[in-house]
Amino acid sequence: MDPRAHVRRFDHIGITVADLDSVTAFFVGLGFEVEGTGSVEGEFVETVCGIPGAHCEIAVLRPPDGGTRLELASFVTPDHAPGSPMAMANELGLRNVSFEVGDLQAAVDAVAAEGYGLVGGIGEYENSVRMAYVRGPEGIIVSLFEQIG
Questions:
Q1: Other CB atoms closer than 10 Å to residue 4's CB: what's the count?
Q2: What is the DSSP string of 32-54?
Q3: Could you read off the pLDDT of 110-119 as tens digits, one per residue?
Q4: Is pLDDT larger for residue 83 or for residue 117?
Q5: Sign, CA torsion 43/10/13/90
């Protein structure tokens, strides 16, 4: 391994949410499994987050292929700070998490049945991939794509 390569693997993506249960249910509906849940407080989380008195509830979700996990965190204290739930893809910061699905239309229909709609439409790129952005709970943009070529 290159001695300059500090990163060994991609471990997880962390998303701070207000309603841990509803966001967890959304991702479970897409096929994630709950790997674990818990509560974190005390010196460790206060030091890492730089927030005195930090206490959060977390859920770690694993995709079916065992790949990169999602860590959802909801702060008990201090209360969460509002973000921009209608942020668009050109706003600075983390804008979407992306997942390959087997059937894009079926996945879009499933999240629509739960009340989550498309940000734009379903696009197709050079007969190789179809993709759509879905506005999930709390404004999270979830990119769903299907390999077609």
A1: 5
A2: -EEEEEEEEESHHHHHHHT-TT-
A3: 999 999 999 9
A4: 117
A5: positive
Report pLDDT digits (tens) over 55-66: 999 999 999 998
Residue 121 DSSP code: -
Of residues 98, 94, 80, 83, the one with CA closest to residue 138:
83
- pLDDT single digits (tens) 4-25: 787 878 889 999 999 999 999 9
Long-range contacts of 109-115 (CB under 8 A, 24+ apart): 110/29, 110/30, 111/26, 111/29, 111/30, 111/136, 111/142, 114/26, 114/29
The Cβ of residue 28 has, within 10 Å, a number of other Cβ atoms equal to: 13
CB 65 within 8 Å of CB 102: no
Q: Are 98 and 145 in contact (CB under 8 A)?
A: yes
Q: State if pTM tops 0.85.
A: yes
